[in-house]
Amino acid sequence: NSNIYGGTDVPTCGWPTTVELGGACTGTLVHERVVVYAAHCGADYDSIRLGESINGGPGRWVSTEECKVYPGGEPGKGNDFAYCTLKEAVTDVPLVPVLMGCEAEDYLVANQQVTVVGFGNADTGPYGVKRQVTAKINEITANNEAFIGGGGKDSCQGDSGGPVFVQ
Fold first, then answer.
1. Is the pLDDT of residue 144 over 50?
2. pLDDT reading at 1 higher than 60
């Protein structure tokens, strides 16, 4: 299996809300017409890719209506977020609820085990294949940013903006 640094390729139809953004970053479908991702990835996306690989196979491209970044959003400040609105609703993918409210205080803590998913570079494979790795949250900063991974289990370039799942 190819690694996202210590992980494996995602099985067909696994983590279906994880999307690829034009060969640069990963995002998450959080509503049938909204994808969130990292602001430092920019806003120049005409479409997003649903599926396991950007190189074909099962999946499809969905056109974007618009993409916007949070003004001044960048890593380290707690405001590195952006979104794209899709031209058509994606109704055949089960959405995963976003962690918020009191639940966040219970689950976003040091040593919590999480699954990082992305299309980025890997230690044994190229960009563009959806991969997953189980890691732990090391800390949550004062800016509400999570530091995750280490010890050979981590994300890489191209995974920015992608989801971290907790159960």
1. yes
2. no
pLDDT at 2 (0 to 100)? 41
Is 18:163 a contact under the CB 8 Å cutoff? yes
Q: CA torsion angle for 147, 148, 150, 155 (degrees, to 10)?
A: -110
CA distance 28 to 15: 10
Q: Give the tens place of pLDDT for each residue, 85-142.
A: 999 999 999 999 999 888 888 899 999 999 999 999 887 678 899 999 999 999 998 8
C-beta atoms surrounding 33 within 10 Å: 17
State which amino acid sits at residue 18.
T
How confident is the model at residue 45, as a pLDDT?
96
Provide the token pair at 160: 């920015």
DSSP state letters, 138-149 = EEE-TTSPEEE-
The two tokens of residue 165 are 């799942």
Q: What span, in angstroms and rounded, lies between the C-alpha atoms of 126 and 27? A: 18
Residue 94 CA neighbour count, 13 Å, CB half = 4
Greatest Cα-to-Cα distance within the chain, rounded to the nearest angstrom: 42
SS3 of residue 76 by DSSP: coil
CA quadruple 131, 21, 141, 150: dihedral positive or negative? positive
